């Protein structure tokens, strides 16, 4: 089996509600659909996600990189030879999310060719995962109402976006803790926006209410990151400091983080597994982070979350159960009794809705 074509298609999916955090705001998912075709007619698909303010990759740039730079490098290679594919793509520096999209599409091909779902190919450790939902920056009242509604649907973990105002974050988490069930986990994502003293203040004020932190302090401020990790009694999870295998090795070396987060849009499945092996060797638990995926990308998250033994924290999801959320695929993610299950079928287990692809494709 050989790769005969790689095609990147820019899409723009309007969000039912805006998403706002300390360093940005989104009203639509300006993402890239990746389609990889083989000479045997097996096609792999993936959702590649550019974030210019995080990875430096734009939608226009990603389409160019995939179609004009990476596609010629991987043409003619066997999709099962993922290490060879990554070696070929390494000629183009950076562009983690573009390469991650191609990688996931290759695993989709492998699953379809073998008649197995990706989570079985990748490790097959569990059949479902516990989900977490993101509470975006908004008024306290709206955030509390959202948490109550999601709690009633079975969610028992919430990421609370914060980082701009420690006092407001303290007030917000107090309100949320009173509103949700006692078995619900709450954690704040500072998006690197706290000072050391701001993060310490939030921790001390929320002692017993906050279960863990995510990236409270800038990745470049290593001295204060390590200082905070040793000054508080809850784990700190990484994200913006966890881009590559080498980044994670460094964070382990300086002892700045207790929980390692992977985001499949920037690692793909192949490097996601390597990161998991590193974390297992150093006894670091992991979680799967969301990059604001649509249903196609969320299917990817479920598969890797079910596959890896090291995943021991709830995995982040978007509102896949919102019928107003646009989707590029025909299938919806299934949640039962507080657990999320991977789509059935080989590969990613989802099929493209070609009408939706046509509708949301960015032209010109």
Describe the protein in words.
- Helix content is 39%, strand content 21%.
- It has twelve helices and 13 strands.
- The model has no long low-confidence stretch (mean pLDDT 96).
- Helix 10 links the parallel strand 9 (260-262) and strand 10 (286-288).
- The strands form four sheets. A six-stranded parallel β-sheet has the order 8-7-6-5-4-11. A three-stranded antiparallel β-sheet has the order 1-2-3. It has a two-stranded parallel ribbon with strand order 9-10.
- Helix 1 crosses helix 3 (96-114).
- The radius of gyration is 20 Å and the shape is globular.
- The chain folds into two domains: 3-115, Enolase-like, domain 1 (2-Layer Sandwich); 121-341, Enolase-like C-terminal domain (TIM Barrel).
- By secondary structure, the chain is an alpha/beta fold.
